[in-house]
Amino acid sequence: MAAPGRSLHGMRGMAAVPSYVVMQPTTLCNLDCAYCYLPFRAADRRMPVAVAEAVAASVNPWAASARFSVVWHGGEPLAAGREQLAALMAPFGPEVEHHVQTNATLIDDAWCEFFVAHRMRVSVSVDGPRERNGDRVTRSGRPAYDRIVRGVAALRRHDLPFSALAVVNDPAPGRAAELYDYCLDLGCEVLGVNIEETEGVNTRTNAHDPAVVTGFWAELVAAWRRQPRIHLREVEWSLRYAAAVLDGTADDLLPRRLDPIPTIAYDGSVVVLSPELAGFTDSRYGDFSSGNVLATPLHAILADAAERTAWVGEFLTGVEACRSSCPYFGFCGGGHAANRYFELGRFDGTETEHCRNSKIRLLEGVLEHARNHQSPGA
Ligand code: SF4
Fold first, then answer.
1. Which residues have any ligand 1 atom within 6 Å of their CB?
2. Would you state the pLDDT for residue 378?
3. Residue 251's pLDDT is what?
4. Which residues of the chain have a pLDDT value below 50?
5. Among 7, 357, 360, residue to substitute to test ligand 1 (most atoms within 8 Å of Cβ)
6. Taking the CA of residue 336 as centre, how many other CA atoms within 13 Å lie in the half-sphere pointing to its CB?
7. From the DSSP assignment, how many helices (H) and strands (E) are in the chain?
């Protein structure tokens, strides 16, 4: 199944126009989750409206010609408050879709009315039932689970559709089915699953027994197939890839050029490809930023980000190394910059624990499920 990756020739370099931008309205988070990668989550550094105005000046023309999203990410974006968030959203035109990734603990009726008024799509972070949320604690170390559930209840009271994003730190047998069944009850429309990553200030290991991780994904597919009521992000990617391999169109699946996915930090600095790199510095790579929107328009920064940012060039070399060495390249497209940096210390390596857990074993898990459930005589 994975072998076509070696012969793929599509997707070279990085595009100048993204399909979405990530905005950091504040560095602050009201929680202190054990696996969080954010370095400044205890500090309330807020994005000035001038930064949003500068970003909108580039984004609005893009949104007029193609679907375009702004993803409000943090810190905890709701910790910025409704007034501040509304002021930051105001410069964006009506074509721009707004999304927010939130820990849900601050969601109440007033926030729900805000989401409706601003046509904002909501994704909540929740790791499954109460006992799987032990890493999710307040600044005083208290479990955040009840507050997360209260926030989700408010969304449901207002009939607001929402997505869920779950971090799994122990993909043991039984956990995938438990998570899926939990999300069916939770009422989310879409579920994304992240095996915990070693990145940013989170240095916990993400190395697992390969068979256990493959089994986790296979179990998740089986749970989904029993009741396919939720869009399961990772499984849908895998099935789309499998179908494309079978009908010979796998080469069309990856974008022609990498989406730069610019993250705009609270101070206007722009980090491409990996939001997790924002706020870090390195003696070789500096602060990872490709410029600041208060000095240079976003479209101008992205026009030559690969040339003006040394680590991006190194990352693109790593992507080419993946293309020539990894049979999973056609599915994966070369992985994430932050995982390479935080696991390997540089950007031009290839395999990471993250890509083993979340790309290679994901695809293997889907295939394992297919093998175990093929009809007799097939
Ligand atoms: S990041 Fe990993 S799975 Fe993806 S292409 Fe590179 S080596 Fe393969």
1. 322, 326, 328-329, 332, 334-335, 350-351, 355, 359-360
2. 46
3. 78
4. 3-5, 378
5. 360
6. 19
7. 14, 10
Which residue out of 206, 328, 336 has the highest number of ligand 1 atoms within 8 Å of its CB and is therefore the one to mutate? Answer: 328
- Rounded to whole angstroms, the Cα distance separating 299 from 177 reads 44
The Å distance, Cα 67 to ligand 1 centre, comes to 28
Q: Token match 């020539």: residue?
A: 324
pLDDT in tens, 1-15: 554 445 555 667 899
Beta strands in the chain (DSSP E): 20-23, 69-72, 97-102, 120-125, 162-168, 190-195, 231-232, 263-264, 269-271, 291-292
The DSSP secondary-structure symbol of 377 reads: T
pLDDT at residue number 145: 96
Quick one: pLDDT at residue 35? 84
Interhelix angle 233-246/210-226, nearest 10 degrees: 90
Measured in angstroms, how far is the CA atom of residue 341 from the centroid of ligand 1? Answer: 14
CA-CA distance, 371 to 234, in Å (whole number)?
Answer: 19
- DSSP-derived secondary structure for 67-136: --EEEE-SS-GGGG-HHHHHHHHTTS-TT-EEEEEE-STT--HHHHHHHHHTTEEEEEE--SSGGG-TT-
Q: Which residue's CA is the closest to the ligand 1 atom numbered 7?
A: 351
Q: Tell me the pLDDT tens digit for each residue of 91-142.
A: 999 999 999 999 999 999 999 999 999 999 999 999 999 999 888 999 889 9
pLDDT at 375: 60
